[in-house]
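We emphasize that the prediction below concerns an isolated chain of 419 residues; any contacts that depend on oligomerization or on bound cofactors are therefore not represented. The input was used exactly as deposited, without trimming of termini.
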Amino acid sequence: MKVLVVGGGGREHAIVWALSKSPKVTQLYCAPGNGGIAALAECVPIKATDVEAMVNWAVKNAMDFVVVAPDDPLALGMVDALEAAGIPAFGPRANAAVIEASKVFSKHLMTKYHIPTAKYQAFTELDAALDYIRREGAPIVVKADGLALGKGVVVAQTVSEAEEAARAMMADGKFGAAGARVVVEECMTGPEVTVLCFSDGEHLVPMPSSRDHKRVFDGDSGPNTGGMGAISPAPGYTPVLAAQCMEEIFLPTIAALKAEGRPFQGVLYFGLMLTPQGPKVVEYNARFGDPECQAVLSLLESDLMDIFLACRAGTLDQADIRWRDGSACCLVLASGGYPAKYQTGYPISGLDQAGETATVFHAGTRRAENGAILTSGGRVLGVTAVGDTLASAIDSAYRSASHVSFQDMHFRTDIGRTF
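Result of the prediction step, given as a token string:
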């Protein structure tokens, strides 16, 4: 099969890496790809959000299957457009991807179908949002309604901080149209867990749990990022909790989307908080998380292409999905200054040495004409290691990452050690 993966980050590198091991995949492409993906697939210089150009290229080059990995093209309807052009695709259609693209939609869906989540109100007027914040007090959470690169959430510890966040989103246009509406919700407490699930619209199969570390500095301090590292499975997510989440959250969500005429085929991301009152939904994503994907797929023993095909065919309940025992840790190496202003174009050394003991997934990299790998983004690499225990996976990831160097490189020293 000729397969195209849409996207160019660490998540897409992990997907390409897994698909490259499938005997069904004979030719592999990625658009736009990155410096590391280029070693496994032919990179195509098309922006992930350019739906028309992507579909035209896929048709012209007779792709047998397309994997749409990032949130933006899913929300823009790339899967719909590919299917309309006769090309099978993995990922939800736009009317199902809205579960991530609109937090207002997802909160209303959870309320309607009694799926446990935080108490909230949605607002289109700033003054009403400010009044609600003042009445409820802090701590309180302010979320931009739309897609904001994983940075549209502020967990405010004071009323003034929450007011500032609401003004930045609604009045100052910090996230553009994504912040025109906001959700203000209670601040839940407890450990967070991510569970990624394959879905064919009817059936659902959870992957091993994971935990993402979103804040940029040690001790979960500093601003939110797209993710500074992840471990899998997540400590404390017991079989009893997994069964409870399946019954109260996972299956009801898939059933709710189907009942709304929005059957979900693809990967549905459940961001959960294990509160004293039980597991509750923090957020949904309509695709693999990043860097959770890198950690979780490192544990997959089955053929990922077979799983993707089963999701699209509605036969996920018949798929052979196996995971290796043990744990995985993905450590993100970022550009200094990320998630604010940072410089790019720096050469990266030590990749071969790191790759001897871990899998180095590229995110913000590009390959220079002389073959050198240069930094080209905020999150640059995801050094991912597996081990029989979580401690051994974490140690291996850090030892492997110690070989890598580029100017102003930044990483957290407590991934998997802070809960």
